[in-house]
Amino acid sequence: MTTLLSLNNICVSFDDRMVLDHVSLELNRGQITTLIGPNGAGKSTLIKVILGLISADSGNIARASKLRIGYVPQKISLDESFPLTVERFLKLARHSSKAGLTKVISQLSISRLLDRQMVRLSGGEMQRVLLARALLGEPQLLVLDEPVQGVDISGQIELYQLIADIAQQIGCGVLLVSHDLHLVMAGTDHVICLNHHVCCHGEPESVAQHPEFARLFAQNERQQLAVYTHHHVCDEHDHEHHHPQPSSEENN
User: Fold this and answer.
1) Shortest CA distance to 118 belongs to which of 150, 148, 159, 82?
2) Bridge partners of 17?
3) pLDDT (tens place) for every residue of the chain, 252 residues total
4) Of 4, 136, 202, 228, whose CB is crowded by the most CB atoms within 10 A?
5) Cα(116)–Cα(111) distance, integer angstroms
6) Nearby residues of 17 by Cβ (< 8 Å), 6 or more positions away
């Protein structure tokens, strides 16, 4: 497995407050890594370090040569009075080309959105468009910062599956960031639990049972790590999804 990016003992502090405390991780081609943790755990700071937006106080960062990173933010701020269609938004991307645009429009099934105004998109539609823009650069590593923010449960499941399918198609590595433990796709290869330091890491099931994970989220016992499973049946053209059923408490 090719390592795209590795962090070794990364430390970052702001105003004498340690935000990242000796954080180490590897992101590999063909691997989906999910970063979880509560608000204020340092996830956004870690993403900025990975993207090269801020420098670590100490530690080492190794990136593959000419590494291309595609970034999907939680949201973008748009002036509602400014007319901007989806098609125009995509064409403004630095790596936009006619062939590339045609490809991502097909991959993400967003042709029906091209004439829509960006400010009129739903949460799920916006995330598809932002993902399309990130894919225009043909990334080797795709970083998504809480991509299901503002998307309903069925939309989350669909978006998670779409991300996994695209990652497989283009063979990139994926770092998926979330503070919401209600749903983690079964396609995730590795989970990292962060609370300023790496509390635990491993496969989703093992992390869910780890004592450090339990201690970290004991403050809200109603939160649980649910695993979305994708089981293929014998007929290669048919498959069935088994979705966790969220309780009414999960929306509180």
Assistant:
1) 82
2) 14
3) 799 999 999 999 999 899 999 999 999 999 999 998 888 899 999 999 999 999 999 999 999 999 999 999 988 888 888 899 999 999 998 887 889 999 999 999 999 999 999 999 998 899 999 999 999 999 999 999 988 777 877 888 888 888 888 888 999 999 999 765 556 656 688 999 999 999 989 888 778 778 887 777 665 444 444 555 444 333 434 444 444 444 434 443
4) 4
5) 10
6) none
In this structure, whether the domain defined by 3-68+139-251 belongs to CATH 3.40.50.300 is answered with: yes
C-beta separation of 32 from 51 below 8 A: no
3-state secondary structure of 251: helix
Farthest CA pair distance, the chain: 58
Locate tokens 């979305």: which residue? 228
Burial class (CB in 10 A: 0-12, 13-18, 19+), 48: middle
**Whole-prediction pTM:** 0.81
C-alpha gyration radius of the chain: 19
- Using DSSP, state whether 128 is helix, strand or coil: helix
- Domains of the chain, by residue range, sit at 3-68+139-251, 78-138
- As given in the structure block, the two tokens for residue 121 are 């998109």
Q: Are β-strands 141-145 and 173-178 bridged in parallel, bridged antiparallel, or unpaired? A: parallel
